[in-house]
Records
---
Amino acid sequence: MTATSAAAKPESATTAPMIRLRNVRKVYRTGGREFVAISDVTMDIAEGDMVSLVGPSGCGKSTLLKILAGLHDADEGEVVIGNARSAFVPGRDVGMVFQQALLLKWRTILENVTLPAEILRLPLGQARERARNLLAMVGLAGFEDKYPYELSGGMQQRAAIARALVHDPKLILMDEPFGALDALTREKMNLEMLRIWQESRKTIIFVTHSIQEAVFLGSRCAVLTAGPARMADSFDIDLPLPRNLNVKTTEAFGRYTQRIYDLLGM
Ligand code: ADP
């Protein structure tokens, strides 16, 4: 089954979700053996949501991101991305951020950020202009002509976020984007990420192993059970925006983290 665009469907533009997953199942077949990576995932994601995807290692989170990115097909179930108000073009409308920044070491930071636009053959002058603005947004103004080795890990990850946004995709998928950073840099990046999300107004889905990060960043949280993945629960995180680190000391924050621990049986 392939992810489809819902542009032609007669759904209400105001109520239709940006992503609709129904009973999604994914089986890997290698060497004549079958491995069920995702057994049953159902959820809706609204346009502009920041969804944290939490679950034990190996439960199928990356597989779900790959299905949403169009890199894998689901074996069963329904995957609909886009709605009547906002058509979705697979490939063109997705930006990805991984645990490692994966910058090309022979390209400058600006040239790294414009790479997706080059691959998609978008006008280069506009892409450079947009890349400069995005680098300023992620706090890297002045680093356009540096090479990756001249930047810290956190700065490289900021450049990777700018690169994911350069072709103005509707959906950003992030797979443990801050997992390789030290604890302090990670907290700083969390704050930056909230600001970037609010400024860019993108729909973002990010995988994290940190329950605190899931609550701090998410407008919505989806909790997956141990593999094969099933949806344990998904719920809104109604903590006020903009958030700062003080929110972590509030009772409401504690209730959300406890809810996730309970769902994970911890
Ligand atoms: P997570 O991101 O939650 O750690 P993954 O989605 O990477 O989990 O993987 C889910 C399960 O599927 C794991 O047990 C993994 O070993 C298996 N898996 C992932 N990719 C493949 C593949 N290409 N072929 C076979 N098994 C795979």
---
Amino acid sequence: MGRLELNGMTKVFDGGSGDIVAVDELDLTVKDGEFLVLVGPSGCGKSTTLRCIAGLESVTDGEIVLDDTPITDNKPKERNMAMVFQNYALYPHMSVRKNIGYGLKITTDLSKSEITERVEDTAELLEIGDLLDKRPSDLSGGQQQRVALGRAIIREPEVFLMDEPLSNLDAKLRTTMRTEIQQLQQDLNVSTVYVTHDQTEAMTMGDRIAILDGGELQQVGEPMECYHEPTNQFVAGFIGSPSMNFLDVERHEEVLEHDRFSYTLPADVAKAIADAPTDLTLGIRPEHITLCDSDRENAVQTEVTVVEPMGELVHIYLDFGDQTLTASVDGGARVQAGDVVSVVFPEDKIHLFDGATGETVKNSTSGRQVPDEQVAPSN
Ligand code: ATP
């Protein structure tokens, strides 16, 4: 079991000249065996949340519950959790064997031979069996991180807590280790809270992702749910790469007015948002902007300022007055800087946000398919 609940968890630091609310009334549940990723920009409170769960920071308010037992005031070693850090935190003077087995030696009464057996099994699982007699300084970054993982796994905790464990690795190794950690977590079926600032890591690894900003939870959901159905402009801009484009528009009945274009909403959308504010922000993802004929409804003429070939895709930058929009189009498109092109924001792909609060007014209507069982029966 490893069901973790944070109920109104708050952490306030004394910042000298005033309080710093690092985590603000966080309500979050990690299901047993779930891989939950905490993601958000620097300073949003990810590490503080993790450190509070681990017991390395006391909470100012709220409670932490593990398998229905409050553990808010328990010491770290009483929490049955294992943490993996960005900087590996290995003991430099100990061999890999001792690094992996050390926690068991000091916290359990297992015999020497039992510890040896578990160290060897863990090392085999992580494919570092041949490194057991080496010191951390003899290992690559990826190998050191495997040792750090081994040290966490061997304790057979109820929860793994991982704080940016892949940040010190180069891009290629990071991608490989991402898959390995995911696989390992699935095999071990241990509830995991994984912190990263990298939205790609969050999207590819998490069963669910929790997006934080300014210490506040913005949304928690499956990766594709957050991509297709962001609850606000912050989430919409944070999830997805390159980021969603935003344009301030003014709504006049079914028409959205921008300095550079007028955009007619489909009748059903116009009706659905009839009570929404008139100041809106239109959101369109780069991968959804489409090159089109100039006579298509809602086509906008614009100049291409920069072209970045990426292989299968080309990122093109489009002049929209005081803004530049990014579009990701097919790599075969023959577009050059200086070309004037027609583009459209397909009607089923646009998002609309309240221009004042950033709250979602309308999400794209294509995209995420609702599973049959979630569709309400019509009667
Ligand atoms: P990063 O990705 O940069 O590590 P983060 O999302 O993990 O950022 P935290 O490290 O949790 O963010 O910090 C959240 C806020 O709390 C920040 O404003 C930070 O400056 C502040 N903070 C964190 N630790 C302390 C501390 N010990 N004393 C005072 N303020 C702190």
